[in-house]
Write a structure and sequence with these properties.
Length: 258
Amino acid sequence: MLNNSRAARLGLVLAMALAALAGCGGDSSEDPSPATGGAPSAATPPSSFPVGPSGPFFPLGTHRVTGDAILVGKGPAAGAWVSIWVQFPSSGYSYVWAHGGTYVVADAQGHWSTWADLPDAQLTILTTHGGHQPCAAIIDSGSKDPVRLEVIPDEAFDTVEPPRPSIARDPSLTGTVYEMTPEGRKPVSGAMIWIEHGFEIQTARALTGREGRYYVCNLPEEVTIYATKKGYVMASVWPVDTSKGVPLDIEIRREPAP
């Protein structure tokens, strides 16, 4: 499954985007989750990871991670599913893959907790249930503080400037998604933005607002940014140096007429 070629990366990302849109009923951007009766299917573990009699196994440690998933302006994100990437100095793995495709799920109060002990590592934690999380939480697994995952509700992006999470940290990235028309540049609202680094490690997901603007934060210094919307061809920009703080505008083009 692991393939370092650029074409394979783009193909997998496009498949993920199309699956998300299909599972959301077209224009809705709500992710499938246990709360909606559509939990994501278990992914096949990478072949480079060791596999035991009952499935893949990964190094365990002594750390449990807990936190809260919050829909900004609304309250607890009940039923949110939480994804965790476990990163070592030279390798990493998905917590979901490591445990048979089972997600960590927030309870009715938005509380969540890992159920298996984690090793010493850097964790990238993201959830998108009921909205989009423009700032991933990036922590050390030994941290004792609860992890707050702030998700912006989709309808908030209908405002010119949707709210920014209180956990927002630099490096951040902002800009406008647009299309070229006979009348010139036209901003594209409701476009999905997502950020990855390393091997497809998601660190942010957001929508563009009414003016086509986006904002993502808590980023590594070098990332790939993707933009897509139903009816448009997905666009990607790589590498993006977030340390410079320079706005990045992205052009997306409509799909050719059949």
